[in-house]
Design goal:
two-stranded antiparallel ribbon; globular
Amino acid sequence: MDTLMLSRLQFAAATFFHFLFVPLTLGLSILIAVMETIYARTGNEEYRNMARFWGKIFLINFAIGVVTGITLEFQFGTNWSRYSQYVGDIFGSLLAIEATVAFFLESTFIAVWAFGWKRLSPKAHAFVMWLVAGASNVSALWILIANSWMQHPVGFAIRNGRAELTDFFAIVTQSYAIHEIIHTVSAAYIVSAFFVMGISCWHLLKKQHLSFFKKSFKLGLNMALAATLIVVIQGHANGAKVARDQPTKLAAMESFWDTKKSAPQYMFVIPDPANERNLVELGEIPGGLSMLAYHDPNAEVKGLKDFAPSERPPVTITFVAFRLMMMLGFFFLFLVIAGWLRRDTIEQRPLLLKAFLYSLPLPYIACEAGWTLAEVGRQPWVVYGMMKTADAVSPIAASQVGISLLAFIVVYTFLGLVAFYLMASHARKGPEPEAAWPEAATEEVKYA
């Protein structure tokens, strides 16, 4: 393999691994802040115990996310230097804001939260957790704005052979960024909610800590219901955005080859990109694709054959990623509604508990499929319609990238095994009694 393909594989491996930890950070931080707020308002010790239990998992997850996120950003200088030279004035400023504002705020206050259980009042401690949650989500916001600019570049001018920033406000307020932020952050909340619900269901099936984990389950269920509804509804709006701004991605998502008015949508398709057709098309919805793309069942939709082969994204990967993400999204909605209707007696329904438990990894898969759709569907462009991926790679030897790729796989595999082992071990153990807390044996410090 050449330098381009190896660099793409390395960035993909680093991104996919990093994104195993980011969604849980975004949503779990909010759930913990809610738990602490309830404790601060009601004095119910069980909610403080919940915050501590889920907080330990949060800290493990956060630590691995930080390590993998830093190395990911380094690749813009090592593997994608031509990209950085060309668009660094825009892309670099967005990443700099994320690092200097959100990330450092998040890192500082998470230390205050971790060591402040006996040093801060319940209200102050809850407020610190809200700061951590806010900073985490603001950090994600800036990353998504940067990615949205790669999907739909605005607010720039080409000068001296480089893209230079001309309208910062246009970049941060463009509709593509707003749609991507809503969709991605809501998907992250689904991951967090199913994580909490899955672990809670494991304990409920074993009939242990029933009150503790039933409360945890209900908090996760509330987040899951809101986030899933947003993802499903807003996903339809995304279809119109993609149709307008990235028509090749839309055509690849549906494996749609021939330009048509009243374009149909098929429930089941087997694409055959080699012969520019589909082997199987079943479950036709007349005008369905036109409706999805333009909110008009009679609208014309461009097919892949209208674009040069060199301008088309990989069809099969894009198509499968979209179908997988979409089907899982509707599955989550149906499961969450079933859970909501049985929420008061959930501990008495083993089949539903098992459904939530076994579904725990599925939101992770849906998120990874979503990123695959976003990034592979943008190809062959690194900045859509502006700079091709082949022109962005660094002028380095393939052997150098191959060695670093192997190192990434080895190190990340080790980190992943350690992280998930620690989280699983803590999750199985359940909440500790207050007497077992390290600070319980020390002298009480007055509340700040």
